[in-house]
Model the fold of this input.
Amino acid sequence: MKRIIFFLCLLMLVFFLVACSSQSSSDAEDETIVLRAGTNLPASHYLLNDILKPMLDRLEEETDHRIKFELYDSESLVRAGEEMEALRSGTIDIALPIYDVYDTNRFPFAEIPLLPVSNASMEVYSKATVILRNDDEPYSDGLTHSERLYGEKGLIGWPFTMGRSYTIGTVTSPIESLDQFRAMQIRIPSNVHEIFSRNLGFSPSSISANEAYDAFNRGTLDGGFTPITDWPSYGLDEVFTYVIDGIHAGSWPSTVAMTEERFEELPEDIQEIFQRVIEEELSLETNPRLIEFQNNLEEEIMQSYLDNGGIVEPLEELPEEVQERIEDGITQTWLDWIEDMERYGEPGKEAAIKWRDAILEAGGEVPEGVMEIE
Done:
């Protein structure tokens, strides 16, 4: 009898433990995971409002609100360029974006989409970035592109490039000669643009975008490399008087990032949702809403610019010597960038070839000199 009572008690204990375990598992599944998202972008910036916020909303919805984001914009939690440290310290859980282009010592290949080309649309840049991100053919040192850029630094990165090409806007009169073209002092936003500027004969200036408006008004700058969609953010639509259409000086790359450690703490099904949703939301091929949005935005900006007397001149209508200088400058910029990378032990030529082939596969064009890089 005692033995029967013992077994009954043991059976009840097992049922109790199973019930507690089930309840605990259920509670864990229902628990809301709060992730701090940090960005330097102001609340009014189109990239945050129209691209990144909808992505966060979709992530919350598709995880049945088991994920909740606390968004800190305008550098309220982390300054631009300090996202890496903030991620590692846990100050933020996800960077929107991480400014790897400003940290080329640690992320030398982040600036690849800024290499100038002969012709590329925003769809070309977006597709080429996806191609490079998914390239699993390792470099000569055994690392794939994503491993080299993020994995060896303990990060999960979702790079995206969706804007149109940087072109040259100026406060000068239309270009009529190579000497006039070369005499310009130009604001440059990146290391690659500095190389390109010098190869075109410009005097480059690396002041911040926030300082550019005053510099143009004072006449201390003649122009700058800018994407048209950024003009209103910095008041450039009010100062530019002349734009060269057809210079394709790369497109700004951005990266949504988390540490591998924080990402792997998420439940596996949520990890899968993150991978799928972020990739779909940030690619123009899978999110055509972004194409329509950017087309409408650029149309509106350009119409206002033209209504105020702004001039747009196609590249093919510039003097022949200027066109030749630009084409030669594109090729030389690729060669100089490769040399810079390899000077510091990076496989620059391999990376340049991967990007060139991705641009071509996506439907873009590069000069003959870039085609000959082997």
Summary: The radius of gyration is 25 Å.
